[in-house]
Amino acid sequence: MNRRKAIFNTGVLAGIGLSGGTLLTVFQSCKNESQLNWQPLFFSEAEGTFVARMLDLILPRTDTPGALDIKANIFIDRIIAESYDEESQQKIRSQMSDFNTACKEKYGQVFSALDENKQIEVLQSAETTSGKLNYGIWGKTIGKESPVGFYRSFKAMAVWAYLTSEEIGKNVLSYDPIPQEYKGCIPVSDVGNKWSL
To answer: What is the DSSP string of 74-97?
Structure first.
């Protein structure tokens, strides 16, 4: 799978402009780094714990690998550290802090310190109250998009990191490195899994 091309295409659609060299470096470093010795480049230790817990609840391990299995936390940390400008980095840090402040006001503790049932309750509430991302085409959002907030933005980044990983692309999604004939009109039931880029 040409992961570099897949990430580039997905990044364009998500409105994230990254250079190929930066992405290649991020991919290689994420692949080679273990969760045990990971030292975040952007996140503080508390923020890294917060991000890992959010990812584990949004995309847990089931019969397929979870977000932490494919090192989505390391990938997100590196993308933010190596490709976001200072203003965007500060915005993410501020949004995470606001999210934790809201948890503390309602439950008495920051998100990572809550028990799993409360964490799920927080995410379910965020799912219903967060703005929705508009569909996009060729990197452009269709229609006027209202602010979506931290939860929805983070979830979109988590899904992007997950679906563009080599592990998921090759072993979970359908993957054909050498596509053959074009069949433009077939029943969706014949397609099976979603296809990897």
So the answer is: HHHHHHHHHHS-HHHHHHHHHHHH
User: How confident is the prediction along the chain (197 residues), in pLDDT tens digits per residue?
Assistant: 444 444 444 444 444 444 444 444 554 455 555 556 778 899 999 999 999 999 999 999 999 999 999 999 999 999 999 999 999 999 999 999 999 999 999 999 999 999 999 999 999 999 998 877 767 666 676 777 677 889 999 999 999 999 999 899 888 887 776 766 777 787 878 777 766 65
* Terminal-to-terminal C-alpha distance of the chain: 8
Say which residues have a Cβ less than 8 Å from residue 67's Cβ, sequence separation at least 6: 55, 56, 58, 59, 60, 73, 158, 161, 162
Tokens (6 digits) for 184:
């433009």
User: In one letter, which amino acid is 108?
Assistant: G
Give the residue among 13, 20, 61, 28 at the shortest CA–CA distance from 160.
Answer: 13
Beta bridge partners of 136: 141
Structure tokens at 179: 């596509």
